[in-house]
UniProtKB/TrEMBL annotation:
NCBIfam families: RhaI_grampos. Keywords: Isomerase, Manganese, Metal-binding. PANTHER family: L-RHAMNOSE ISOMERASE. InterPro entries: L-rhamnose_isomerase (IPR050337), Rhamnose_iso-rel (IPR013457), Xyl_isomerase-like_sf (IPR036237), Xyl_isomerase-like_TIM-brl (IPR013022). It comes from the Bacteria. Residues 48-249 form the Xylose isomerase-like TIM barrel domain. The gene is rhaA. It comes from Phytohabitans suffuscus. The keyword Manganese applies. This is L-rhamnose isomerase. The keyword Secreted does not apply. One of its GO terms (molecular function) is metal ion binding. GO terms for biological process: L-lyxose metabolic process; rhamnose catabolic process.
């Protein structure tokens, strides 16, 4: 049992978002931090540090156009030299002036064409660097009742998704992310997992749903969604983060570590932790006030801790109690695992992997922060929207 748990923890993979290393903030203020990357290459350098100290974060997702470069193969080669690789390509059809009334669901066909062309560009970039996943999130929606036809917008969305889907290579996937609201306040065109699931079902096997943990109404039972989509073979990926109120994009496991455990319990129960299961575990976070690289390391560790606890659930005892209708017994099995201190286990796993058992401490002692603060002077710091 323990060796199986250790092996699963060693094999776990968590993808980092390039944008987590750039400056971010709220609509009130972006506080710049010293040493922040100025180019996608510098973001990859920082991501490579997170992998160096955790050993389980070997890929970095890009966001286009924030991470647009002339030569993606060169960026991929650079990443490889640093021991990491490029990951999911995220499309961005939410920041151009033309998209005020929507991107792929905009009433204007010229704007829709422009948005679809960007989605196709993202599929092509992914193809160039051999990346499997293209992730789509649409800010599209309306602010006022009557502003546009809810139904016509679904038709336009379906058309755009179909054209993008048709462009995918054999080994590529379209990952569709939903979000309850924001920036649209009345209707959102992909507001929930049901809408995303229905579109993906129509598209076919290469279309799957992304669960961003911050994109639900308060109190939503996310692990139910996880269990349902896994059962249907339609869970493509997570965007992990945590939230207290809305889409806060705080460090995963910071607001509700028990929820993260419950999610990972569904993953482990469905044997979906292994890479072959096809679920991508990504972070999608913004570090507005905390230093970014250690915050990413901490986030990876939080996912590892929730995973370790989920792996420790005594599944035979759980099934036995469930089948016997033993409500308290079944709940106790789960809580025993959740209440286990898995930090010593993870420290051991890190030693086995040749890593320092204390990744945050090791990073802080490494001198990397001092190096980037001294070296990254001048130029334009990367930030949300650049
Ligand atoms: C939208 O809120 C989102 O979660 C999508 O994944 C975007 O691509 C990402 O945030 C980046 O800001
Ligand atoms: Mn997201």
């Amino acid at each position: 049992m323990t060796e199986a748990v250790r092996a699963a923890l060693r094999a776990q993979r968590i993808e980092l978002p390039s944008w987590a290393f750039g400056n971010s903030g709220t609509r009130f203020k972006v506080f710049g931090q010293r040493g922040v990357p100025r180019t996608p290459f510098e973001k990859v350098e920082d991501a490579a540090r997170v992998h160096a100290f955790t050993g389980v974060a070997p890929t970095v997702a890009l966001h286009i156009p924030w991470d647009r470069v002339d030569d993606y193969s060169r960026l991929a080669g650079f990443a490889k030299e640093l021991g990491v690789g490029l990951g999911t390509i995220n499309a961005n059809v939410f920041q151009d002036d033309d998209y005020m009334l929507g991107s792929v669901t905009n009433p204007d066909p010229v704007v829709r064409r422009k948005a679809i062309d960007h989605l196709l560009e993202c599929v092509d970039i992914a193809g160039q660097v051999g990346v499997r996943d293209v992730k789509l999130w649409f800010s599209d929606g309306t602010n006022y009742p009557g502003q546009d036809s809810i139904r016509a917008r679904q038709d336009r969305l379906a058309e755009a998704l179909q054209e993008t889907y048709d462009r995918l290579g054999d080994d590529q996937r379209l990952l569709l992310e939903y979000k309850l609201f924001e920036p649209a306040f009345y209707t959102t065109d992909v507001p929930d997992w049901g809408t995303a699931y229905a579109h993906c079902l129509r598209l076919g096997p290469k279309a799957q749903v992304v669960i961003d943990t911050g994109h639900h109404a308060p109190g939503t039972n996310i692990e139910f969604i996880v269990a349902f989509l896994l059962r249907e073979g339609k869970l493509g990926a997570f965007d992990f983060n945590s939230r207290f109120y809305a889409d806060d994009d705080l460090m995963v496991g910071a607001a509700d570590p028990f929820q993260l455990f419950r999610i990972m319990h569904e993953i482990v129960s469905a044997d979906a932790l292994k890479a072959e299961a096809g679920v991508a575990f990504m972070l999608d976070q913004c570090h507005n006030i905390e230093p970014k690289i250690p915050a990413q390391i901490r986030s990876v560790m939080n996912v590892q801790e929730a995973t370790a606890k989920a792996l420790l659930v005594d599944r035979d005892a759980l099934t036995g109690a469930q089948q016997a209708g033993d409500v308290l017994g079944a709940n106790a099995v789960l809580m025993d695992a959740y209440n286990t201190d898995v930090r010593p286990l993870l420290a051991d796993v890190r030693r086995e992997m040749g890593l320092d058992p204390d990744p945050v401490g090791a990073y802080q002692r490494s001198g990397y922060t001092e190096k980037i603060v001294a070296g990254r002077v001048g130029g334009q710091q990367a930030g949300w929207g650049a």
